[in-house]
Amino acid sequence: MAELRVCALYPDLMNIYADRGNLLMLRRRCAWRSIAFTLTAAGLGEPIDPDAHDLFYLGGGQDRDQRLCALDLVRTKREALHAAADRGALVLGVCGGYQLLGHRYALGGEDIPGLGLVDLETVRSDGPRLIGNVAIEVDLDGDGPRVLAGFENHAGRTHLGSGEPPLGRVLKGHGNTGDSGAEGVRRGSVIGTYLHGPLLPKNAWFADWLISAAVGAGDLAPLDDLLEDAAHAEARRAAGA
Ligand code: GLN
Fold it and tell me: Residue 16: what pLDDT?
């Protein structure tokens, strides 16, 4: 029986905007297809086994909680997350979690260290927070563009290293910096995005893409997605895309 093993990093601290809903979405869509689902939480000070999980999830957080988690990530989890990503396990960072996938988050005079899984850095701006509904166009497998819709709320501006591909192209909203037209990052199995809201309930197709990629299940059995499709359409409408 196929199984999706998820490790939620700091689910108590990095859980702004219902990140828990993303995990619930994965659980339900697995259950409806008889795919086993296990969820393990890893908090402050707890080491992780790079081989024991198919998907590592790091949600959004306030600057204060992000600082705590960043120091702990670097101290107790960095090597394992690099090993996991190297063997193709999925690492999904949302908003504050996305920022911590890069080299650093510069916050005033302070540099909060990142995991260095992707080539990017984030600088907290004194300018307005980038808030609102957002839609981006992504092409995850090179088989045509699809839309991810969600909500963003961040003070940080994320700058990708040259050659580091974004997750998608901003259709509506701000994205990484507000003016680059780029949103998120994708390097192999490591994905970061500012979209929460929550991300997966508004984009069931993306939840399925993650499940399929994580468990190597190929094409998943279709589900009755009447409500999910309506949620997606509404999120797109809210963003104006
Ligand atoms: N603290 C970060 C910022 O404001 C991320 C916020 C979030 O996760 N919503 O840029």
Answer: 81
